[in-house]
Amino acid sequence: MVATNTTRATLPPDAAGPRAGHPGRRGLSPQAEGMLALLVTVSIWAAFALSARALSGSSLLPADAALLRFGVPLVVLFPALWRRRRAIAAVRPGPAVKIVCGAGVPFFLAAMHGGALTSAAFVGSIVPGMVPLFVSAIMIRRGHGAPKGTQAVGLALIAAGVVALVWRYVVPVDTDVLAGAGTLLVASGLWALYTVGLREVDLDPIGSIGLLCLPSFAVIGLLVLTGVLPTGIAHAAGSDIALFLVVQGLGVGLCAGLLYAFAIRRLGAERSAVVGSLSPVAVVLLAVPLLGETPTLAVLVGVPLITAGVVLANRRPRPEVPADA
């Protein structure tokens, strides 16, 4: 996802050149390392949108995918999470609830359900694309000023892009697609809460993954054990289990968070957000060969508008320079 914790990602990029102690050693520059990490992250975000659409045609149920999404990172990171257990337990309830609800079970089920009713292009565009608009609304409610300049233009383009996506389903009314789009808007709003919550905690990326996955796995496990959510993982195809284990568990659950944090350290928050805005475009391009989706005119208009809007919405205004400087 495009939006993530960028407030504390202000460490300067490492100096380019040979590493200390290895004067003759050559390798990728810090900027190249950051760009490579970011491109992999964008691919994972695109895979999340594609898997949300593909779930409806697989032998897995949403609860099964959620168990893989939140369980795999816990298994892989267990030793590191155990060392951070006190820091995770010390997080205040308010931010913890925002993180767990914003990217946990409610978000995951909303994104999966919305993807089943719409298309991969809708998931890849609406969920990350609307996050800057929802975050701005939260900030305004907290007393911060309204966005101005290019940021305001960017938010307007995002809204216009979403309208372009759904307009053809309003007349005549397609209740399934509109319900799916509405569910994806809910998922985007939840992700905005997650973004705000991450800014309020003092955890490294691994600790943040633990704070999200521990309660989320417990909740989804409880819902499955009590029969609230059905499960079919015992009879699911091995290929489907492997696919969602790699994409959701290892990719989205583990690698995306760590790689995006690494990219921010190398490239800075603004450049990372701009390149990350290419995720909707990647989703549309990959959905053609992988899912057989044909981009409609609404997608060809809406996705570029949303992408351009995300780029502008993530631009920080330049600080004013005093006249006598």
Order of helices and strands: HHHHHHHHHHHHHHH
Q: Mean pLDDT, as a whole number?
A: 84
Helix content: over 70%
Query: What structural category characterises the helix and strand content?
Result: mainly alpha
Number of helix segments? Answer: 15
Shape: globular
Give the termini distance in whole angstroms: 39 Å
Instruction: Find the count of extended strands (DSSP E, 2+ residues).
Output: 0
Work out the strand percent.
under 5%
What characterizes the major β-sheet? none
Radius of gyration: 20 Å
Low-confidence stretches: 2-22
List the helices and strands and how they pair.
Layout lengths: L29 H25 L7 H15 L1 H6 L1 H5 L3 H11 L1 H13 L2 H10 L1 H11 L7 H18 L8 H25 L5 H21 L12 H30 L1 H8 L2 H13 L5 H17 L12
Helix pairs in contact: 1-6, 1-7, 1-12, 1-14, 2-11, 2-12, 5-6, 5-10, 5-11, 6-10, 7-10, 7-14, 7-15, 8-10, 9-15, 11-12, 12-13, 14-15
Protein architecture, described:
The protein is mainly α and 325 residues long. The protein is 70% helix and 0% strand. The chain has helices at residues 30-54, 62-76, 78-83, 85-89, 93-103, 105-117, 120-129, 131-141, 149-166, 175-199, 205-225, 238-267, 269-276, 279-291, 297-313. Helix 1 crosses helix 6 (105-117). The two termini are 39 Å apart.
Structure described in brief:
By secondary structure, this protein is mainly α. It contains 15 helices and no strands.
Spell out the key features of this protein.
325 residues; mainly alpha; 15 helices; globular
